[in-house]
Amino acid sequence: VLIAAFGNFLIPLMCGCDDMVFPRLNRLSYQIFLVSALVLILSFFVKGGGFGGAWTAYPPLSSVPEFSLTDWGASLWVLAVALEFVSFLLGGINFVTTAMNARAPGMKMMDIPIAVWFIVIAVILFMASVGPLIAGAVMLFMDQRIGTTFFLPSGGGDPLLWEHLFWFFGHPEVYVVLLPTMGIVADIITVFARKKLFGYRTVLYTAFATGGLSFVVWAHHQFVAGIDPRMANVFVVTTVLISIPLAEMLFSYIATLYGGSIEFTTPMLWALSFLFAFLIGGVTGIYLGASALDVYFHDSYFVLAHFHYTFFPITIIGMFAAITFWFPKMFGRMMNETLGKIHFWGTFIPFN
């Protein structure tokens, strides 16, 4: 939603075009998303209630209604997820086409603002990774409603197949959400430090490297699921490797701040808090990437803390940073700085 909302708002403004290239496709994307939301809400009111198979939907808990005690609620949830992904897929086509083909005359590729680049890279990641999960959602729906056994060992299926399909999408999805936020933070830092982004090309290339590596790290979620130890070693290496371009991005942001005339406005506070929180999330992730340590940390509060120190900055902080930064542009009036800072400290301190 962060990508969709601010992508629609920022890409035409920053690329110098009047509107998205395919406005009707944009509307269709929104309408499918609305149907998805309605189906999800409906799932709470059918017999048995909403889906009870946890957010990762691991079979057999998710594929056998008797296990999760949610019959149609589980199926409607799967349908809602599939529709949402179709919606984002259509919207993503629009974003990439607009940014690449509808730029203002004279705007070269390396003139595109970093925030737009990061949204484009995130959309490409989403479009490349969502296919297996949509296929998995269809198979899961068939297991629930038709009686197939794609994920049930009793019928020759394999529950680990779902884990592979889910996390092959799930880990690139982390960077699908992260990169737009990092683009927003880069814009905020350059404005309120009164400096150009340090190493524009380096940041852009590391974003592409992060996106590419995100497709070869998914199995670090399965170190305790019985995968071959030799294969686990491969994913240990790729997981450590992906931390290098992300660290380079953080160094570039810190270098941008260094020597700048920093103004601690509300958007800048959100941006700085992102760097702090995401650094903690990133460092704890390196420990989980080592299979020898992950065996002990898996399913512990350490993983919970890592997850929240990753997704809190890239969703909550990213959203509020963007809203407070572009508030005057969106609403035609200046934001109250005092209330903004009260809101920031009232959110950031309790979280930590």
From TrEMBL:
- Cite a single GO MF annotation: cytochrome-c oxidase activity
Reply yes or no: does the keyword DNA damage apply.
no
Q: Which InterPro entries match?
A: Cyt_c_oxase-like_su1_dom, Cyt_c_oxase-like_su1_sf, Cyt_C_Oxase_1, Cyt_c_Oxase_su1_BS
Where does the UniProt annotation place the signal sequence?
A: none
Q: Does Transmembrane helix count among this protein's keywords?
A: yes
What is one Gene Ontology biological process annotated in the Swiss-Prot or TrEMBL record? aerobic respiration
Transmembrane segment boundaries: 32-56, 76-102, 114-142, 174-193, 202-220, 232-256, 268-289, 309-327
Coarse class of the primary localization is: membrane
Provide this UniProt record's keywords sorted from A to Z. Answer: Membrane, Transmembrane, Transmembrane helix
In terms of Gene3D superfamilies, this protein maps to: Cytochrome c oxidase-like, subunit I domain
GO CC annotations on file: membrane
Q: Where is the protein localized?
A: Membrane
Query: Can you give the residue ranges of the Cytochrome oxidase subunit I profile domain?
Result: 1-352
What's its membrane topology? Multi-pass membrane protein
Q: What is this protein called?
A: Cytochrome oxidase subunit I profile domain-containing protein
To which species is this protein native? marine metagenome
